[in-house]
Amino acid sequence: MKGRISVALALALLLSVPALAAGYRLAAYKDDLFKYPKILSSEAGGDYVVVQYIQSRDLDQRDIIPEKKTKDEYVSLDTKTVERDFEVRDGSTTVKVIGTGKTDGKAKAVVIYLHGRNGSRFQGANDLMFGGNFNRIKNLMMRNGGVYLSPDFSDMGKTGTGEIKALIRHYHASSPGAPIFVACGSLGGSICWALAKDPEAAPMLGGLLLLGSSIDDGFLKNPALHDPGKRFPIYIGHGSHDILMAWEPQREFFKKIKAAAPDYPIKFALFDTGSHGTPIRMTDWRLILNWMLEVDKK
User: Fold this and answer.
1) pLDDT at residue 133 is higher than 90
2) CA distances from 112 to 81, 134, 138, 143, 199 (A)
3) Most Cβ neighbours (<10 Å): which of 92, 172, 222, 256?
4) Order of strands, edge to edge, in the sheet holding 93-101?
5) Whole-number pLDDT of residue 130
6) Is residue 1 included in any domain, yes or no?
7) pTM for the full model?
8) Considering the domain boundaries, does residue 2 fall inside one?
9) Which CATH number characterizes residue 161's domain?
10) Residues 6+ away with beta carbon under 8 Å from 74
């Protein structure tokens, strides 16, 4: 798959702010199974919520094999008809990716999942793990004219960021006007934050989702914080019993953003008693992405 475009077209695309399709929203799909079980508390006008998570209900009873295979009702493998394991080439950069939906372009929305340390493109493409939540985002994209991408990348630093930027650039060109959402699991968040401050990549972002991931106080100096024309919504999901990445710094980061720019579009969901992988299992993709689609960036 070739990602080469003319210099003039590339410049025009890179300087443009991704336009959200007027009225485009993700239609309901298995909402009763994937919606938040219960909101225990809410602050900041609903932007900060504590979500009930009970392992016996949300993991043990939901999975046939705990953490490896969820029950059939959470999964639809209709997505296999529009799923490919392929390569995207952008100039000298090649990215291996598993994609579901409109992988050849003309997508209405693009969702990219970046794995954490020791992961691979197969993690974000796994239909049966994480309570079937990756299968849900696949179905949401397939059924709503979008594309879901789970790529490999070389590292969590400059090289990996460049590879993901090339992937974003490719789909920004092949699906003009489509919002591009990047979801980062665990240490993959370092790429999310690198993209957020990259002058080429940031204008192409439709939103960032941090799933049991990192924060970057450097974002407090980002021009997007105070310039509505450069803003993109941010979602943070974290488990309160995450022993790999504590949740309290995430909360403080949320508060700092709200203090610096009270109207900045940022949401935080704390999954009560949840572990490191809980946000990947429990985040309501449709709820969060539809909120991001409603955010007016102009």
Assistant:
1) yes
2) 19, 11, 11, 17, 19
3) 172
4) 39-43, 48-52, 266-272, 234-239, 207-211, 180-185, 110-114, 147-151, 93-101, 83-90
5) 97
6) no
7) 0.91
8) no
9) 3.40.50.1820
10) 30, 33, 34, 62, 131, 132, 135, 136
